[in-house]
């Protein structure tokens, strides 16, 4: 994905160095590089989606994991409803959920609607407000939220979302200037500072201990 986004910046006439700088700047400022491109460079987000997200051979990159499906199956649906919140377009999100064999375990999807002239994305407040409206949730303090961007998590906390967790993948690889390097995704979280009150997990299975009340009790 990083390679394709970098190539898209370059296709707009930027040098490799400029493309890397703008990619990081827009991600840091808006939570999504595409938001900067649509705001400042009159880019068609659907064209971006076709050439970046839509061009990925996801079936060769990700596979279903039995433990992940079991994690979703063990969520107690009498207590909670499961929704997916993404900064991608709906087609990409639907592909990912389908490949991971989780689509039948997710009630609803909140996504960046690239068809809208001024779509919202995490960590913008409008995105979270839209999510609550879509899921028909009146009290955000009852929401459970996990995200791999610390900035997105802190935005949810500021809006009163009650049970928030940061999923921190260490060793994530990104492309800058056409070259890959290892990073910690905490460093790409809108410049947000660490919040010691927010639980941090490195494996989704740790949610069983972090949110034990939302999982079925084994008999």
TrEMBL record:
Pfam family, one: Hydrolase
Gene Ontology molecular-function annotations: nucleotidase activity
GO biological process: nucleotide catabolic process; pyrimidine nucleobase metabolic process
Superkingdom of the organism of origin: Eukaryota
Cited InterPro entries: HAD-like_sf (IPR036412), HAD-SF_hydro_IA (IPR006439), HAD_sf (IPR023214), SSM1_domain (IPR052791)
Protein name: Pyrimidine 5-nucleotidase
Source species of the chain: Neolentinus lepideus HHB14362 ss-1
């Amino acid at each position: 994905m990083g390679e394709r986004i970098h190539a898209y910046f370059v296709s707009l006439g930027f040098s490799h160095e400029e493309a890397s700088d703008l990619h990081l700047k827009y991600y840091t400022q808006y939570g999504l590089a595409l938001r900067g491109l649509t705001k400042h460079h009159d880019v068609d987000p659907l064209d971006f989606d076709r050439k970046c997200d839509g061009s990925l051979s996801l079936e060769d990159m990700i596979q279903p994991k039995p433990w992940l499906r079991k994690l979703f199956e063990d969520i107690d649906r009498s207590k909670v409803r499961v929704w997916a919140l993404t900064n991608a377009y709906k087609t990409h999100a639907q592909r990912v959920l389908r490949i991971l064999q989780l689509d039948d375990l997710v009630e609803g999807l909140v996504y960046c609607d690239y068809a809208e002239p001024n779509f919202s994305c995490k960590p913008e407040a409008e995105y979270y407000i839209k999510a609550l409206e879509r899921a028909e949730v009146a009290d955000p303090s009852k929401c459970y939220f996990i995200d791999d961007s610390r900035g997105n998590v802190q935005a949810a906390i500021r809006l009163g979302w009650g049970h928030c967790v940061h999923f921190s993948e260490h060793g994530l690889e990104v492309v800058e200037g056409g070259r890959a390097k290892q990073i910690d995704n905490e460093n790409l979280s809108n410049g947000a500072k660490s919040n010691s009150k927010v639980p941090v997990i490195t494996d989704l299975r740790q949610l069983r201990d972090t949110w034990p009340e939302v999982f079925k009790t084994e008999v």
